[in-house]
Amino acid sequence: MVEKREDGDFVESLARGLKVIRAFSTSQLAFTVSDMAAATELARPTARRLLLTLEQLGYVRSHDGMYMLTPQILDLGMSYITAQGVWDIARPHLESLVSRTKESSSMSQLDGSDIVYTARVSVPKIIGFSVQIGTRFPAIATSMGHVLLSELSAKQLDEILSTPSQSRVIPRVKPTRKELNVTLAEVRSRGWALSDERLSLGIRSIAAPVRDASGVIIAAVNVTVNAAETPLTKLRSSYLPLLLETAQRITDDFVRMSHVPAIEVEPS
Q1: Could you give the number of structural domains in the chain?
Q2: Tens of pLDDT along 138-163?
Q3: Which residues pair with residue 104 across a beta bridge?
Q4: Is 206 exposed, middle or buried (0-12, 13-18, 19+ CB in 10 A)?
Q5: Which domain-ending residue is among 37, 53, 69?
Q6: Both 96 and 150 in a single domain?
Q7: Where are the beta strands (DSSP E) in the chain?
Q8: What's the rounded Cα separation, in Å, for the pair 33 and 156?
Q9: How many C-beta atoms lie closer than 10 Å to residue 57's C-beta?
Q10: Is 251 helix (H, G, I), strand (E, B) or coil?
């Protein structure tokens, strides 16, 4: 059931609609009405009305009684990305990095205990997971996650780690809190993170922070490689300097953007 709130301004129908959207995943791309009701713990008539409403709005399509998301759903996430300017700022730098390394590069931000991909430039290589903008992974098992967690206070880290992952991915390596503390201290000290097949076999990555004008980490960027193709020595000696340079350039652009005064258009 959708958790009810005492706040009279809480719109339960909206919460239910969002719950229906979140039920779709790579492991279940289509639902019958009954399946959706079971997955969301909503009454069947409610699930049906929500699916029909989403269909009329263009976010869902139906075929032979099965409901699937349409590409229009990406508009919801792209609104956030566009508003933040993340993609426009990061894109040329990530493209330059990928052209030099011939490896995929991404940017992510923290949402609960997950990292969420907000920008990506990929190359056609076989990696254990399909990744696109909006993909989630548990932060504790990724290099970008370690960067994003590294400068949080103990209290903030406690709160985040107590939040269940929404990624539906079980990492290959789940560190204890003590092990995570040691890892994050190392990341703070050296300014970058390494994940060697922690998320899944075959996936190896390095990540560096992107900061705002006050020096706070607001995102992380990475280089991801196939562990069978790229040894750790090459990742550190060849790709790490390029990644750190890229992260600094994105940071510099974010800082410049923050200093640009907003232009208010007077209503005519």
Answers
A1: 2
A2: 999 999 999 999 999 999 999 999 99
A3: 224
A4: buried
A5: 69
A6: yes
A7: 30-31, 60-63, 66-69, 104-111, 114-121, 136-138, 193-196, 203-211, 217-226
A8: 39
A9: 11
A10: helix
86: pLDDT strictly greater than 90: no
The string of pLDDT tens digits covering residues 173-221 is 999 999 999 999 999 999 999 999 999 999 999 999 999 888 999 999 9
Q: Is residue 268 part of a domain?
A: no
The pTM score is 0.72
> Distance between CA atoms of 92 and 201, rounded to whole angstroms?
30
Paired strand residues for 223: 105, 206
Output the six-digit token pair for 263: 């232009």
Residue from 56, 64, 62, 53 nearest 18 by CA: 53
At residue 118, what are phi and psi to the nearest 5 degrees? -115, -10
State how far the alpha carbon of 76 is from the alpha carbons of 36, 68, 71, in Å.
21, 16, 10
**Total Cβ atoms within 10 A of residue 171:** 19
Burial class (CB in 10 A: 0-12, 13-18, 19+), 71: exposed
226 DSSP β-pair partners: 203
Enclosing domain of residue 30 = 12-69
Kindly report the length of the chain.
Answer: 268
5-37 pLDDT per residue, tens: 556 788 899 999 999 999 998 778 899 999 999
